[in-house]
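Researcher: Please translate sequence to structure tokens.
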Amino acid sequence: MMIQKITVDGYERFVEVNTIDNKKLIVHYIEYSEFLNANEKTKIRNIGDKLNSEIRIDLVSISYTTNDELYFLQEIANSSSVKAVVEVKEVVDEYTILAKTSLCDEAILIEFEDEMSYQQNDRVYIEGSLEIDPV
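Model: Translation complete:
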């Protein structure tokens, strides 16, 4: 992923990136080593830098089973908020699944705020936050 824009709020970073397959995404992460006030520029990562990280969806607060096709949508400017339909590939525990998405070819981790009871191959509508842990 290549950084196109960085919005900061304390330790939080909302970063617009372009993926290898030319998708534009807004991802969120915490930069624990650098606190910034509004309009300050980070000294750690810059526009044009590459981010290496696996994408996941966290903080899923709304979800339900559906028969809809897989999709992925980010409607809010400068926000990592995401709406998607995913297909459960593996149930990791009562809060976590690995799921197929229209975002990428690999299954990604999805973490729910509340216990869930989805099963393998279920199609699930979710609302959460697109997250990364850059290295």
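Researcher: Any highlights?
Model: The CA atoms of residues 45 and 95 lie 32 Å apart.
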